[in-house]
Amino acid sequence: MSHQDPLVVFTPSGKRGRFPVGTPVLTAARQLGVDLDSVCGGRGICSKCQITPGYGEFSKHGVTARDGALSDWNAVEARYDEKRGLKQGRRLGCQAKVQGDIVIDVPPESQVHRQVVRKAASARVIEMDPATRLYYIVVDEPDMHTPTGDLERVARALKDQWEIAEITCEFPVLTKLQPVLRKGKWAITVALHKTSATATPSIIAAWPGLHEGGLYGLAIDLGSTTIAAHLTNLDTGEVVASSGIMNPQIRFGEDLMSRVSYVMMNPGGDVEMTGAVRDAINALAEEIAKEAGISTSLILETVFVCNPVMHHLLLGIDPVELGQAPFALATSNHLNLTARDLDLTALPASAQIYILPCIAGHVGADAAAVALSEQPGKSEDLVLIVDVGTNAEILLGNTTRVLACSSPTGPAFEGAQISSGQRAAPGAIEAIRIDPVSKEPRFRVIGCDKWSGEDGFWDETAASGITGICGSGIIEAVAELRIAGLLDPSGLIGSTAQTGTERCFAEGRTNAYLIFDATDQGGPRITVTQGDIRAIQLAKSALYAGARLLMDEMGVEVVDRVVLAGAFGAHISAKHAMVLGMIPDVPLDKVSSAGNAAGTGARIALCNLAARAEIERTVLQITKVETAIEPRFQEHFVAANAIPHATDPFPELGKVVELPVVGFNTQGDGSDGGRVRRRKRG
Ligand code: FES
Question: Whole-angstrom Cα distance, residue 545 to residue 539?
Answer without folding.
Answer: 10
